[in-house]
Each structure stands twice: as structure tokens, then as C-alpha cells.
Amino acid sequence: MSQPDVSVVIGAYNAMPYVVKCVESVLEQSIGVDRLEVIAVDDGSTDGTGEELDRFAARCPSMRVVHQENSGGPAKPRNVGLDLATGRYVFFLDADDWLGAEALERMVAMADANGSDVVLGKMVGVGGRTVPVSMFRHNQPKTTVFDSNVYWALGPTKLFRRAFLEDLGLRFDPRLTVGQDQPFTATAYLNASVISVVADYDCYYAVLRDDGGNNTSRPDGALRRLPFLRAVFDLLTREVEEGPKRDRLLRRHFQSDQREFLTHLLAEADPEQRAAVFEEFRGFVRAWCSEGVQQGMPAADRLRLWLIRVGRLEETLEVMRHTLEGRTTPLVVEKGRVYGAYPFFRDPELSVPDEVFDVTGELPVHHHVHEVSWNGPRLRLRGRAALDRLGGLAEGSELVLRERESRVEHRLPVAPLPAAEPVDGDGGTVPAEFDTVVDLSRAADGAPLPRGLWDVSLNVVVQGVSREVRIGSRRSPEVSAKRQHRVVPALGGFVTAYYTQPYSNLTLDVDGAMHKPPASAEVGSAEWAAQKRAALLLRGSVDAVGPFLLRARDGDGRTVDLPVEAAEDGSFTRLLRLLDGEEALPFGRWSFSLVPATGGDQVRGLALRGSLSATGRRWWRRGRPVYAKLWADRRGVFLTVAPVRLTSAVRRAVGLR
């Protein structure tokens, strides 16, 4: 048998009936069972899990089952499976969970395309199970632990390059009965050359068991967490230089794991053990949780960490109860800041600093765009906005145009309109409507907006509190998400309005800083006017909107510019008059281009293309026969207007050739 692509390792302990769907999901993978090996390790189950695994193995030659005495945790079963694995990659699958049908095929393809050492597949929680989400907003072919949120997903249920694990000599620590996945995965992340994320497919379904049998739900949860936390803190201290990068990784533990630790500590019945465990965790906080680590944390986390640092056990648990019970936190607004009046706010005995309670940066801005429209250089934005729990935007709010590279910004006042009714997504806060027009020809302090990528934000001011938010991601269906090039003569070229990926926020690209204007336009049809023998109607389209000139040029260098307006869908029409009348084309062989009508001499024209059949017409003008013929080839669209030699006309009239 050739080397399998993936070794799927399933550690199982009393996993009935969940293990049935788990194994079935592996055997039904679209990658094909012939490209897999399945290694199931029964860790001393007593509920028939081992027998069920044996039945699967009897039907599937690529599956083997190992039976062993109960080891007390997932580490040893996973290590046994990893020692037996022969695949290019190894995937650790918990026996309670299952895989999406294309999960392994997609993850292997991602790894092969990018040389990945670790691949994360998008996770879905089942039955109320909480799973990480922030790293799965979009595919990430190549990232690192410092350039993404992958560190917030420290479970081992991922695809690992097996040679990479063997080179590191990486195994799960069997001394850790819970959290043994964190040092393992953290070590892999820190040493990986490439980490990839598959976010466009639901790869992994994590199940919350009805019987409470998940490993992390067992007794003595707070005490059992201390060893793996100590191991992780030692690892990060050893492997990552002190500074912002280490702070970023430590923040994950002192935020997420702190909450888990205190939740379990609340369930600890023995007061002496509760105090001892708390004191040990306090040592972690004092040793590793600096101000840099706490930067950007929610106020409730900062408050609990402050109380832990000073050794206030009961007060810490009271704040945790406040969070778990979902109690309302009153807000106090003072001097442009907002404070959450959590327990012990301005308590004279504790004297916790006010900045610990500062929630200004946590208040979400509710916003929605109803209209994005243009009138020449003027951009109209209409919508609504509010600051959560404080109210709709008020006087002093601004529209902010910020150039992405230089960070130059221009702020334009936004006047609130009468309050609207609250709608879904506004958090129950009554928003205020806004309707603002931005004249791009004057937006830069009275001058035209210069070349660059200008991100559009709204600085919402309510009760003296200001919060800035990018807008466009929440918009009405009538607001088209299509990227649109627009000719704006006042700016001397194109403005491209588009929505960023993956967050779908509005940005204006002035003068092709990122999105190059279209290079050509298309002529779709040409018809001779029925009532005007010397007139030809052209219909075409261009990936742009606004004023153009249909420029006709002949071999003698003569130029005739004919105004054309491209509609919102990019379509345009133009009647060509030949020989007589205003804007008529005289005799000659003409080629065509479409030029943005900006008034500049250096504006590049768009080549005019078309798959037209040749079409011609003859008529008499001032007693002499003339003809015109339009045709197109790979070089462009051409028109010849010329007199007919009189002898040729006579011969044609009498039927001679």
C-alpha cells in the first residue's frame, strides 16, 4: 500500500453513541478512504466504544484499533496513534465530534499548495458547544501565529504535517489531564513555517455531549488547569522574546483561560482548596500579566485581574458571577469617557482606578447604509448610526476619509436627522439618521481628493463620547456591492468605489491606486438610422460610469470628439452623423477610442473593441454617390467614409461589374 495522505487519530473513552457518527464521517470523506489510514485508540472504555470500533475496523482495511488501559486523559491515546501513523499528514479527531464530508480533501489541498505545517479547518459548535470563530472569517493560505488569530484556537483538532511533528519530537504531555493540547499546539504554531486556515467550508463539528462527558467538564476543573497553564507560560517565556508579540499570546490565556479558571473555581466546594488554587493562579498573574498583556482586554477581565493581583478572592468571584449571570452593568459617562459600573466601582475600600472600568472602546457602533449614490463629483451617503446604549449620532459627528498608506485624513461634518425607530441590529438603541454629500472636488480642505485609497469611516459622537467605525459592511440590498469605476472630471480621472475583502467596508480608489481603470470598451451593435441615410447608431458598454468622449481619428491626424455618457450599468449610445451637420465625420478612414471626459490632455483612451459584422450604406450627396462602411477586427473598430467614383456608380446602376 502506498503512503496514505492522512492518518486520522481518534482517541476514544466511553464515547458511545457519538463515536459512530465520528468514524462514519471519516470513512465517508471525499478524499477517499484509500488515501487515509484511521487509527482509533480505545482508552479503556466500559460502554461498548471499543467493540464498536472493532466492528468498523472489520469492515475497513485501512482502519486499526488499539485497546489499552485507561490513561486518565487524551494525551496518551493521541501519542499512541501518532507513533503508529504513517501518513504525510496527521489529523487528531475527538471521538465526540465529526468531520464535514470534504474537510480532509480541502485541508490537504491547502497544505500541499502552500507547504503548510499546520492547517486549521473552520469549526462549528453543536448542541451549544462554543468554538473559536475569529480566525475563520476568511481563508488564509499563509499566515503565522503573530499575524492572525490562530493562537485563539489551541485545540489539536487540526491537520499537521507529520514530518514536522517528528522533527520537533512533539508529543502530548501525559501528565496533564486537561489542557494538554495547549502546549502541544502552541509549540507547533511557534515552530511552523506556514500556518493555513480553511474558512470557506465547515470542516469540524465539535459536540457538547448531553451527558457532560467532555473531558473539560470533569471535577476539580480549576486545580486541573494550573499545570497546563504553567507549562504554557514557561513555553512562551522560553520561546518568545519579551515584548508585544509575547504579550499578544499571553493575552489569550489571561483572558480566555482566566474566565474558564474562575468559572470552575466558583464550583469548588472546598474553601481551603479554593483559596490555595486561587493563590497559585495569582502567582501567574503577578509573574506574567503585565499592563501590555491587558491592553485591549474588556473592562470585566481587567477588573478581575486587578482583584486577583491584590489577592481579593471573594471580590474576584463576585465579578465573575456578575458576568456569568448576565447582570446589567450601568454606564457612567464623564468627560468623553464611559465607565462600566461593575461591582466595586469607586468602592472606597478597594480604590480600584477608574481606568480599569473604562468601557469606551467596548461600546459597539450600530450603523447601516441605506444609499450610496453619485451626482458628478458628489458622493451621497445616507444611513443611520448609534452608539450602543448611549443613543443616535449627534452634532459633532464626522465622515472621515483616511488615505490608507499615508494616513492623511479629511473630516467632514455629518448632521443628524430626526431620530428613527430602533430596528434589529441596533441593540435596542434608537439610532439617528444621517444624509451627507461629499464633494470629492473639494474634500481635501477645499481641493480635489488626491490619488490614493481613501477608506470611509464614520466618527459617531454621542453625549460627548466619540467612536469611529468603518461603514459599508451593513447596507441595504439596494446598495450594490459591485466595484464601480466612475469618471469624475473634477479629479482628472477615475474614482473606483468598492467594498474591501473580507470585511466589506467602503473605500474610494482615486486615480487607480489599486484598481486600474478599464483598458477597453465594447461596441455591441451598429445600426443605420432609418430616417437619416447618413447616420449610424452605435451601442456599447464599458466597465465604468460617467462622461466620455467617443474619439474618432483618421490617418491624417484629424480628430473629432463626440460626447458620450455611460449609464449606471455602463451602457452607452452614440449617433454618428456623416459628412453633414454638427459633429459630423468628414471623408476619411476613422478609428475609434473612448476617452474619459476629464478635460486633460494626457488622459489615456480606452480601445474600442467589437465583434461586428461589416455593415455599409451608399447614398447620393449633392449629386454624387458616397458610401460608408463600419467593421471591426482584433485591432479595433473602424469606419470608412468616401466618395464613390462616378464610373463605378454608373456601372453598378446598370447592373455591370
UniProtKB/TrEMBL annotation:
GO MF annotations, alphabetized: hexosyltransferase activity
Top-rank taxon: Bacteria
Residue ranges constituting the TarS/TarP linker domain according to the UniProt record: 229-319
Entries under InterPro entries matching the protein: Glyco_trans_2-like (IPR001173), Nucleotide-diphossugar_trans (IPR029044), TarS/TarP_linker (IPR054028)
Domain Glycosyltransferase 2-like per the UniProt entry, residue ranges: 7-162
Protein name: Uncharacterized protein
Species assigned in the record: Thermobifida cellulosilytica TB100
